[in-house]
Specification:
- The chain has 318 residues and is of the alpha/beta class.
- The chain has two domains: 3-71, no CATH class; 75-317, Ribonuclease H-like superfamily/Ribonuclease H (Nucleotidyltransferase, domain 5, 2-Layer Sandwich).
- The protein has eleven helices and ten strands.
- The strands form two sheets. It has a seven-stranded mixed β-sheet with strand order 4-5-8-7-6-9-10, sandwiched between helices. The protein has a three-stranded antiparallel β-sheet with strand order 1-2-3, with helices on one face.
- Strand 4 and strand 5 (85-92) form a beta hairpin.
- Helix 2 packs parallel to helix 4 and helix 7 packs across helix 9 (253-273).
- The longest helix has 22 residues, at 48-69.
- The radius of gyration is 28 Å and the shape is globular.
- Residues 1-29, 41-68 are annotated as: Disordered.
- InterPro entries: 3'-5'_exonuclease_dom (IPR002562), piRNA_biogenesis_EXD1 (IPR052144), RNaseH-like_sf (IPR012337), RNaseH_sf (IPR036397).
- Residues 50-68 have a biased composition (Basic and acidic residues).
- This is EXD1.
Length: 318
């Protein structure tokens, strides 16, 4: 915080002795927390600046303490997700904020609230990076900045949530997320309910291969509202200008909203497609989907727009 110091010095009345002139100084220190004025008499061989610094020091220390106290306070940002529907997201970029988030998430999970998970990064896979992990419910998304906080978040509660197969997590095409988490952070993702599997099962070919659709395409097909799509298009425009935008800080608001709607859109797709497949079959198929990429040897990021052979994903689970 900015601190302003003014120093006014006037000579006292003229001295008649051989002692050096004594000066009267008045120092006013002004900061965002208020002001402090102190008058004192300083002999000429004393430094006014030194005295001023002594006055400023406790004010600066208080400001720094207040700033540290505010580290855990998160701002809830509103985001429009439908014609007459809003949700919120919180950007989590400090350890103090993360500790609060883990407590809140554990409480939501305890209360049986469904959660959704998504990762952001550059070349998301074992060959790239995971810079954000986003976890949310229908009404609140936490955007956890791994790049800023550090990988210690996994040992501070995030790993146990991501690995627990009893904590079900909506995702969309979990393959590269699972690959990156395992090979970069030793996190074996579990409990996934992959919404892409629901959509593919709705139109799967009996023979041959089935092309998979993007989240954007699925939102266009199954959600009768362009609100989320418009947010994704704005974020995509920023991504097209920079291939490594998820490693740049600070992230602009468009990117934070983009990450949020990837979570919030999953709940809308789930509502539209949930009856297309039995729950136990869906969970088993999603688990196999997680393993298709992370469990094999890879020498480069070889993503595919084709669903792995049906017998390996869905038929084996029926």
């Amino acid at each position: 915080m900015a601190t302003k110091r003014t120093l006014d010095t006037d000579n006292t009345e003229e001295q008649t002795t051989s002692e050096p002139n004594t000066k009267k100084a008045k120092i006013t220190v002004v900061s965002s927390k208020g002001s402090l004025t102190k008058e004192y008499f300083d002999k000429s061989n004393q430094s006014s600046k030194k005295v001023a610094d002594q006055i400023e020091k406790p004010i600066k220390e208080k400001e720094e303490k207040d700033n540290r106290k505010d580290d855990h306070i998160m701002t809830a940002n509103t985001i429009k997700i439908g014609k007459n529907e809003t949700s919120t997201y919180k950007y989590v970029d400090t350890k103090d904020k993360f500790i609060e988030v883990i407590k809140e998430l554990q409480e939501k999970i305890k209360n049986k609230q469904m959660i959704a998970v998504d990762c952001e990064g550059v070349d998301l896979s074992r060959f790239g990076s995971v810079t954000m992990i986003n976890i949310g419910t229908r009404d609140l998304v936490y955007l956890i900045d791994i790049l800023k906080i550090g990988s210690s978040v996994f040992d501070d509660g995030l790993r146990s949530i991501l690995e627990d197969s009893g904590i079900e997590k909506l995702m969309f095409d979990c393959r590269e997320d699972a690959d990156a988490l395992l090979h970069l952070h030793k996190v074996k993702l579990g409990g996934v309910l992959d919404v892409q599997i629901l959509e593919v099962n709705n139109r799967i070919y009996r023979n041959g291969y089935t092309k998979i659709r993007s989240l954007k395409h699925c939102l266009q097909l199954y959600v009768n509202d362009d609100t989320l799509l418009n947010v994704k298009l704005q974020g995509r425009s920023s991504m097209n200008m920079s291939s490594n935008i998820w490693e740049k800080r600070p992230l602009d608001e468009n990117m934070l909203k983009y990450a949020s709607v990837d979570i919030l859109g999953l709940f809308k797709l789930y509502d539209a497609l949930r009856t297309k497949m039995g729950h136990s079959v869906w969970k088993a198929a999603s688990s196999r989907y997680c393993d298709t990429t992370r469990s094999r040897n890879r020498v480069y990021r070889d993503g595919s727009g084709i669903l792995p052979k049906r017998r390996n994903i869905i038929m084996a689970c029926t």
